[in-house]
Amino acid sequence: MNILIAIGGKEYSKPTLDLGMKIANAFEATTTIAYVGKRISQFSEKDVSVVHQNLDSRELYRPGVRTLEWAYDFLESKKYIKKDKSIAFNDHLLIDEENSRMRVLLKGSHSNKIDLILRTGEIIDQLRSEVATSNHDITIIGGGGNKGMHHKLVQFIDSSVMVVKNYSVNKQYKILLPVNNSTGSNKAIQIAEKFAKSKKLPVEIITVLENKSSDEKLRIILEKTEQRFTNAGIKNTATILEGNPVKTVVKYAKDDSLVMLGVSPKNPFLKYFFGSKPISIAQQCNCPVLIAK
Amino acid sequence: MLSFLDLLNKFGPMNESYKIISSSMLYWFSQKKWFVFSVLLAIFLLSLSTPVGLTLAGYHSLIILLMVFTLVTFEPIPFPAIALLTLVLQVLLGVAPPDVVAESFMNDAVLFVMGSLMFAIAIVHQGLDIRLAKIIIKIFGKSKKLFLAGLMTISAILSSFLGEHTIIAIMLPIGLSVIKNIDTKQTDGRNAVLLTLFSVGYGTIIGSIGTPSGGARNVIMINYLQEFSNINIDYWEWMKHAYPILIMQLVVAYFVLQFAFPTTLKNIQIKRYKKKISKSTTRDNINHLFSSIIILLIVISWFLFNEELGLGIIALCGALIFMICGMVSWEVINKNTNWGVILLFAATISLGFQINETGASSWLVTKFNALLALMPESSFNISWSFMAILTGLTANFFTSSATISLLGPMAIELQPSDISFALSAAIASGFSFLTVISSPTAMIIYSTGLVSTKTFFKVGVLMFTSSIAILYLMSKFYWVTL
Fold first, then answer.
1. Is B326 on the interface with A (CB under 8 A)?
2. What are phi and psi of A4, to 5 degrees?
3. Which of A94, A133, B168, B187 is 20 to 30 Å from the Cα of A266, by its Cα?
4. d(CA A267, CA A155)
5. B64 Cβ under 8 Å from any chain A Cβ
6. Closest alpha carbon to A63 in B164, B444, B185
7. Per-residue pLDDT for A141 more than 50?
8. What's the mean pLDDT when you consider all of chain A?
9. Which CATH class is domain A174-292?
């Protein structure tokens, strides 16, 4: 499994990194930490590139490198990766791999499955390209951006997307798993099961009935999911709720919830212009939300 | 009854290929919406009847101009694509025949853009920043304030001859070296960092107005003046007009920056930097000596032979000598030259020529003059202010050289026999103090991650307004004495 963690400024990226690495460890996944630098106008992109090369040769690292160094130190301090004295960030090599993508290579042997990537450009475009390049299964990003950005991420990135909002490193979390009859929901159930098992987290399984013909199907899915988690030895509760799915899930989710739900099977054109239930939930919940694809 | 939304949802659950195709289409649309907008706008304008007094070819050239403005501002497609589109549309819409378009595509201004970009890469590749830092510390190193003033002055002088993209690449490492490890969480430290970066940045931006080789826009305007008004401005003539403005702007910039970023400068590390750069190898010394000789030769040639050889050919000679001497490889130049920008300038200059040839610029100026006739104020003051502020502001959102290549013909048309309008337009377009997209220098300073767009704009407003005021006073009272 491949996980992509997108980071920005140092102050806001700690929770994203922490939760991202917990998920990566749970799945024993290869992790890419990507810093996406500011978009440079086409007029100046070569000039900026020349200046950055010049700065690198004078050991005046470009801004993203310093952020990646901080991220690497943070992961070491939190013991997400093994400390290796032979690895020094000051000895890094910047490998220009393709347009606007650079890999930071640290000298010395290290067995951690961590890639450090520096990208420049428009964030959705760069993350989409990164996911396409390395086939990431989950993209994890901080919740600081605008709501439109989260919508575009879910719509255009070809991986599950987690928006990390209001996450505290020290808080005890439980997974909130709204289920339905979509393919995305099955994927969300798989991710939640593995993560809950690895981190020993309790799971609240819910389904929201809307007074439709599919209500009976949802009851069955809820029961089956409850059975699945019980069989896996995961502490869980199963609840049937009624009403508008978005409002009900948002109201039910608390600050200590990690919401995991499936992507909407809706027509992409409708999703683009009118949004979808999972996108609205991710925008309105004040806690981390994973939308599985 | 089924609503439209329900009907659309009836298509679901959709098969995978439909999802992929529709998602790709939506993504293309979300990324290219400004391209779609500009095409729709052009189609709408083409469907209207030609305005009275304007030829069909002139009308079409203005529609292409509008498209280019939208596409360059929002960058939905790559610059080379915009350049090719400009050329193709000129022929398809009957603005000019293919041979005429091809002819206007290449001239000395385009050669200058190409030569100066390649020459810049060759110079930056020589590592002259260390040598320059030593000189600046030696002359201005007595106090930190003096050092920053020196950094700004040297940046301005060098940028006036070698262009801002060359000098910012050389001077920025010096600036960043002395502010390395400063704690920017404290106001004093943050202001010291900003003062240093802005000193380098403003010095470089201000310098670019000083001589024709300071920026491509200057050469483009000189070319337009020669073509449209038969007026020749040589290197020295330009300097006589522009250099006093440069000096006044430097003084204003010094005080504006002191006011905007008050700091004790205690964290600036000149001594440590001096120690770090004290050692140099014989190989470096020889390399620096040869580089300096080549640069000096090129600058002298610009002074002495610009009329016979053209500024572009001389700039190309600079890159050529560096390559022949083996001081820079073609691979390095090829990798770092922005070919897209060269193509775009060539295409916009070609469009600029057609806007003039088809009479579109005269039509615009006639309309503008009709508006001026309604004003009680002297028409010179109003049309000068309008033109200078318009080119200055447009350049801040559209970049300076492209602005001049498209608006230059109109600035000349306003007062064809008076060079003060053309010069003012070219110089005002160099006042890229407001936005970070306005010039390579601004973008490079911004790309360090230490300067926000808000800070850039706040300080820039002061510099922009005072620069326009200086330009007005100089054109009104000093240029008439020349």
1. no
2. -110, 125
3. A133
4. 11
5. no
6. B444
7. yes
8. 86
9. alpha beta
CB contact (8 A) between residue A274 and residue B5 = yes
pLDDT of residue B9 exceeding 60: no
Q: Which helix (H) or strand (E) holds B318?
A: helix B311-324
pLDDT per residue over B11-51, tens digit each?
555 567 887 888 889 999 989 999 999 999 999 999 999 99
Which residues on chain B are in Cβ contact (under 8 Å) with A64? 449
Between chains, do B172 and A128 touch, taking CB under 8 Å as contact? no
Chain A nearest CA to B380, separation (Å): 34
Tell me if domain A2-164 and domain A174-292 are identical in fold.
yes
Judged on CB neighbours under 10 Å (0-12, 13-18, 19+), A157 is: buried
Contacts of A183 in chain B (CB under 8 A): 13
Q: Could B124 and A54 be called an inter-chain contact, meaning their C-beta atoms sit closer than 8 Å?
A: yes
pLDDT of residue A260: 96
Domains of chain A, residue spans: 2-164, 174-292
Q: Is B327's Cβ below 8 Å from some Cβ in A?
A: no
Question: Do residues B408 and B361 make contact, with C-beta atoms less than 8 angstroms apart?
Answer: no
Cβ contacts from A onto B, under 8 A: 119
Are the Cβ atoms of B437 and A41 closer than 8 angstroms? yes
Of residues A148 and B421, more confidently modeled: B421
User: Is the CB of residue A266 less than 8 Å from the CB of residue B12?
Assistant: yes
- Among B13, B168, B341, select the one facing A43 at the smallest CB separation: B341
CATH number belonging to domain A2-164:
3.40.50.620
Least Cα distance to A143 among A162, A130, A121, A129 occurs for A162
DSSP for residue B477: I
Judged by CB atoms closer than 8 Å, whether chains meet at A51 and B447 is answered as: yes
Please report, as a single letter, which amino acid is at residue A8: G
Would you tell me the crossing angle of helices A147-156 and A277-284 to the nearest 10 degrees? Answer: 140
Asked if the Cβ–Cβ distance from B30 to A156 is below 8 Å, we say yes
Q: How far is B159 from chain A (nearest CA, A)?
A: 14
Burial zone of A99 (CB within 10 Å; 0-12 exposed, 13-18 middle, 19+ buried):
exposed
Give the residue among A33, A30, A38 at the shortest CA–CA distance from A17.
A33
- Partner-chain contact A266 B448, CB within 8 Å: no
Q: What chain A residue is nearest to B19 in terms of C-alpha separation? A: A268
Chain B: nearest CA to A200, how far in angstroms?
A: 35
C-beta of residue B140 within 8 angstroms of C-beta of residue B146? yes
Query: What integer is the mean pLDDT of B137-165?
Result: 93
How far apart CA A22 and CA A5 sit, in angstroms, is: 11
Q: Is the pLDDT of residue A110 over 50?
A: no
**Residue A90 identity (one-letter amino acid):** N
Residue A57: Cβ within 10 Å count: 11
On chain A, the residues whose CB falls within 8 A of the CB of B446 are: 38
